[in-house]
Design a protein that fits this description.
Blueprint lengths: L1 H14 L5 H12 L5 H10 L8 H19 L5 H30 L6 H27 L1
Length: 143
Amino acid sequence: MNTIITLAFLDYFRTKYNLEPAQTSQLSAIIVLPWSPKILYGFFTDTFPIFGSRKRSYLILMGLLQAITMIVIFFPTENVYLFVSMLFIKNLSGAVMDVVVDGLMVVQSRNDPQLGSEDLQTFCWALVGVGGIVGSLGGGYLT
């Protein structure tokens, strides 16, 4: 899904906002910035539970936040900074969800100490690869 979104917003920057490549690079760097301090998200989610849950509540909350930002992005805006801020929030919620899911993988791998972690990691990376291929093909076609 991220591949489709990335291809779409890069094309949107070029066609809708008529941005130069340097401006596009700067805004793209801002958009992906939330993926850098992922360790902090892990500390935060493990330290401050929401409604008594350290994992499920964050997944639900960040999923809702991501859905809301994608709905806002769907409606055209002339303000490139609003568009970039929504993509920033989308990536922030995605990065937090990624950390929470990685934590869930650790918990689940402890249920099968011999193969649980390896099998789960292999399965997840295989799905990431398939998603990247499908997303690139779909995003290229849609763009």
